[in-house]
Design goal:
The chain has helices spanning 13-25, 36-43, 63-74, 89-97, 110-128, 163-174, 182-189, 195-212, and strands at residues 5-9, 29-33, 50-53, 80-84, 102-105, 137-140, 143-146, 151-154, 157-159, 219-222, 226-229. The protein has 231 residues and is α/β, with parallel strands linked by helices. It folds into 2 domains: 5-128, Rossmann fold, CATH 3.40.50.2300; 130-229, Winged helix-like DNA-binding domain superfamily/Winged helix DNA-binding domain (Arc Repressor Mutant, subunit A). It has a 5-stranded parallel β-sheet, sandwiched between helices. Strands 6-7-8-9 form a 4-stranded antiparallel β-sheet, with helices on one face. A two-stranded antiparallel sheet has the order 10-11. It starts with a strand and ends with a strand.
Amino acid sequence: MTRKIIAIVEDNPQLLENYTQAFESYGYDILGFSSREQAEKSFLNKLPDLVMIDINLNNEPEGGFDLCQFLREKSKTLPIIFLTSMDQEHDVISGLRMGADDYISKSVSLKLLHIRIASLFKRLEARLDKQSYGSNFLELGKVKIDIPKMEIFWNDILIPLTVTEFLITYVLVKNNGKVLSKSDLIEHSEIFIDESSVVTQIKQIRKKFLVRDDKFDSIKTKYGAGYHWHS
């Protein structure tokens, strides 16, 4: 099996070395970068399988956010994780709005961090295996989902969703009409985010559909209960 390539963008040399050694021991190939400029230069040639980014990079307080935007312009589905000490609620919301799939505090243990990354790769591989579904496509009204490619179309227009946004939308569409709580969405999507982050993800999903169709109203909120897809 081909080893996954993880890029780590971290300006603290000791932390970068610690992460590199740990994840190499877990069986990954690691690309380490200490600045946004270094990372962007490398990513122009080839993207890794997953990127972990600190936010405050050297003399750029929001260099990680800028790098995330750069990466999202190149790929809508590349898994991006913010790994940072900036863990206030407004920081988390900003990171998820930038298009990150996860936002993790540096206080997390290496073991738990590895579990979350391994689980993300496992979900991606499962969804790329069309045999997991028995069908390549899910169509419902105006929405069409290409499951192997992890692409969602609305009125035949591609909606540029991140991996996490795709998984949440897929679960909602698949369970059309059924109200799913935040914990239900986390469980069925197999994503490792907290319930408050689900709210942000839903807002971002709606926003992306509305850009393509200002009358989009298929994601309904059942206050106090959760969300459901209405076709």
